[in-house]
Write a structure and sequence with these properties.
Chain B: Belongs to the ABC transporter superfamily. The complex is a heterodimer of chains A (235) and B (475). Chain A is mostly helical and 235 residues long. Chain A folds into two domains: 133 residues, no CATH class; 70 residues, no CATH class. Helix content of chain A is 74%, strand content 0%. Chain A is flat, with a radius of gyration of 22 Å. Chain B has 475 residues and is of the alpha/beta class. Chain B folds into two domains: 235 residues, Rossmann fold; 230 residues, Rossmann fold (3-Layer(aba) Sandwich), CATH 3.40.50.300. Chain B contains 17 helices and 19 strands. In chain B, the strands form four sheets. In chain B, strands 6-7-8-3-9-10 form a six-stranded mixed β-sheet, with helices on both faces. In chain B, α3 packs parallel to α5. The longest helix of chain B has 18 residues. Chain B is globular, with a radius of gyration of 23 Å. The termini of chain B are far apart. Classes of the chains: A mainly alpha (235), B alpha/beta (475). At the A-B interface, α7, α9 and α10 of A face β6, α3, α5, α12 and α13 of B.
């Protein structure tokens, strides 16, 4: 099942993720949000993609709890008549918000994990978008993963010559890392553009260039993207 | 097919041209070798010949350019030329080897069946078919270089420029590639342009040779035996002459405790596919061990483990008491583009000293001396990324040697170096050994292993397949 879904075009996957994320922010029912989260986590696990990145996302949600709790509890107390009611209200808001955030993160991770760079590129090209726009979008989408991997590489190179990574605990030491990563990202983007231009990605797609076709996976994902809106929007 | 008339190129921010008044005409089916010392403008000429100058170079091009009869001021038409640069990693973006080969074909609308056939044929020819679905991250740099070349061959361009295409390939893969290119040129009329330091390898391939010096074409003619085979000097005579000119090694002290010992090393990027599997090795002070072996044999992985960039399981890397991997092991990366990160040559060279707390004045003095030794003494304020590939390679070595580590791990140190610089590199390695350092160098350049090493260790199937003294050194 997950193999079929993974073979769907990048655009169908994006549509599924966007639809789910928007729905999550429209739906106030925590039970439905829990269900959607379980569905996304299940898809990640079934496709063997429930790795440390997913745990990192969960960690980010947990790390944001104290700040968000303070904000929501204050908001609840201000809105309710009594302290007790206010705290309960604030906690319920917090729970729903965290569940929404998690839906968005898991849906994003699902798309990133299931979509290769070439999938994305070819899907955009199949839309007959101008070549330069395809290049721009592809570079933009790969920017964050690329920056993370470059940063890890630069730290490794610096470690080889005496840099202590513990120094990065102090934000003032970010600059010596940021500049090389920025320079490397510039070069990487230039290389990406040259490589793709040479392969004819930037030119107008030829008449026989691949067109978007709806496979079983696309149909399932698009149906799910629509079907989710049939779920109730009131608690 | 390709016409250049009085073409000059001045890089942005520079006043001198890196290519001056080049006039050339190259016809269908020609196999052209481009040679010259490091920084002579070979890559710049190559980019202009394949019409990728606007994409790949920042600067001003003057003169007339034409590709297949069309004006080429703004470059060649899309799909006209394929190009593989010196840094193969720079042009690989997909997840698997197959994705990389199929990308250009899918983009122009070929169906999946045709893409699979093309990829299978190409990969099969190079004995690489079983790695079709391998993640690019799991490949060695040599395997990545092969993937980059094959992804361009899959496009079937009319002109193919390969910049040092065999720099990371083992001898067997390099021979296979040149035989294949010859076939493609003869049968399909492709123009193949190859920038290569190894003139002997070019001799069996190119039918025309263009030599550059200081940005100018100093020779353009048939690649006759005299041009490429060094006037009949045999390989053995060539090496013997080079060896005689090098500083001698000190006799190795067999009683001295090894500086680095490897015990039962096992390591793999995935648990079920170990690259190293029970490897044992010891290197004493004054020894230079050349690690030889096919692409993917684990040479680079071994050097990374010695530097502490990976943890063997099981197995152990033991340094002599008092030494640490962080302080006393210097690792020069295989790809200089991956090692360089600072904004000036001086900053790059002095980075390790800075982290050790060396005062700026002393740091600068030591950097000046180290860089001068590699012919980079005048480039202290230059941006390292603007250097030629060979200059970057020398900078990377200077940035390691300046900190005087006890153990040196050099990964393919001669990539992108011409014969003179390769001999200079060998002399430097010998000097380091004489000073009591232990040196391990991964290389597939037999000439360099002959000049620089005291021992030849061949890796195969994750183990030491042979360990013998350098056969080129007198007993």
């Amino acid at each position: 099942m997950t193999t079929v879904l993974r073979q769907a075009s990048a655009l169908s996957k994006c549509a599924f993720a966007v639809s789910l994320s928007v729905y999550a922010f429209a739906c106030p029912d925590w039970r439905i949000l829990v269900g959607v989260n379980l569905l996304l986590a299940g898809l990640l696990a079934a496709s063997r993609q429930f790795d440390r990145i997913v745990w990192l996302a969960l960690g980010v949600c947990v790390a944001s709890l104290p700040t968000l709790a303070a904000l929501f509890l204050l908001g609840g107390v201000e809105k309710a008549d009594t302290w007790r009611e206010g705290l309960v209200l604030g906690l319920s808001w917090l729970a729903v918000f965290e569940l929404r955030l998690l839906v968005m993160l898991l849906a994003d991770i699902l798309v990133v994990k299931w979509t290769t760079f070439s999938d994305l590129l070819l899907s955009l090209r199949a839309l007959r978008l101008p070549g330069k726009l395809v290049l721009f979008c592809s570079a933009l989408v790969t920017l964050l993963p690329s920056v993370f991997s470059l940063a890890a590489h630069v730290v490794e190179v610096q470690r080889c010559r005496g840099f202590d990574p513990k120094r990065l605990r102090n934000p003032k030491n970010f600059l010596p890392l940021f500049i090389p990563v920025f320079l490397a990202q510039l070069r990487r983007s230039t290389d990406l553009a040259l490589s793709l231009e040479l392969r004819g990605i930037s030119g107008a797609p030829p008449a026989r260039a691949s067109r978007l076709t709806l496979g079983v996976g696309d149909t399932a994902l698009l149906a799910a993207a629509v079907a989710v809106w049939l779920l109730p929007l009131s608690a | 097919m390709i016409e250049l008339e009085n073409v000059s190129f001045v890089p942005a921010g520079a006043s001198c041209p890196t290519l001056a008044e080049a006039t050339l005409r190259i016809g269908q089916g020609e196999r052209v070798g481009i040679v010259g010392p490091s920084g002579s403008g070979k890559s710049t000429l190559g980019y202009h010949l394949c019409g990728a100058h606007k994409l790949a170079l920042a600067g001003r091009t003057d003169g007339r350019l034409a590709y297949a009869g069309r004006d080429g001021t703004d470059g060649a038409p899309i799909g006209f030329a394929g190009l593989v640069g010196q840094n193969p990693e720079a042009q690989l973006f997909c997840r698997t080897v197959y994705d990389e080969l199929a990308l250009a074909l899918l983009a122009r609308g070929e169906d999946e069946t045709r893409c699979r056939q093309t990829a299978e044929t190409l990969l099969g020819r190079y004995g690489f078919a079983d790695r079709s679905q391998a993640s690019l991250g799991s490949l060695s740099l040599g395997q990545k270089q092969l993937t980059a070349v094959l992804s361009m061959l899959a496009m079937e361009p009319r002109v193919l420029l390969l910049d040092e295409p065999t720099s990371y390939l083992d001898a067997a893969a390099a021979d296979r590639l040149f035989a294949h290119l010859t076939e493609l040129s003869r049968e399909n009329g492709w123009i193949i342009l190859v920038i290569e330091h190894d003139r002997k390898r070019l001799a069996g391939f190119a039918d025309r040779l263009i030599a550059l010096d200081g940005g100018r074409i100093v020779h353009d003619g048939p690649a006759s035996a005299g041009e490429t085979r060094d006037a009949g000097v045999s390989e053995a005579e060539d090496w013997a002459e080079a060896l005689a000119a090098l500083p001698p090694f000190s006799p190795p002290s067999l009683d001295a405790a090894p500086l680095v010992e490897l015990h039962g090393l096992r390591f793999g990027y995935t648990p079920d596919a170990p690259i190293l599997d029970g490897l044992d090795l010891a290197v004493r002070p004054g020894e230079v061990v050349a690690l030889l072996g096919a692409n993917g044999a684990g040479k680079s992985t071994l050097l990374r483990l010695i530097k502490g960039l990976g943890k063997p399981a099981p197995g152990r890397v033991a340094l002599r008491a008092g030494l640490t991997a962080a302080h006393d092991v210097g690792l020069m990366f295989q790809n200089p583009e991956e090692q360089i990160f600072a904004h000036t040559v001086a900053a790059e060279c002095g980075y390790w000293l800075e982290n050790r707390g060396v005062e700026p004045e002393e740091r600068l003095a030591r950097c000046r001396a180290a860089l001068a030794g590699f012919g980079l003494g005048d480039l202290l304020d230059r941006a390292p990324f603007s250097l030629s590939f060979g200059e970057k390679r020398r900078l990377c070595l200077a940035a390691i040697l300046v900190a005087e580590p006890a153990v040196l791990c050099l990964d393919e140190p001669t990539t992108g170096l011409d014969a003179a610089n390769m001999a200079a590199m060998a002399a430097e390695v010998r000097r380091q050994a004489v000073n009591g350092r232990a040196v391990l160098l991964a290389t597939h350049e037999e000439a360099f292993a002959a000049m620089a090493a005291t021992r030849w260790v061949t890796l195969a199937n994750g183990r030491v397949a042979s360990d013998r003294p350098n056969p080129w050194l007198a007993p």
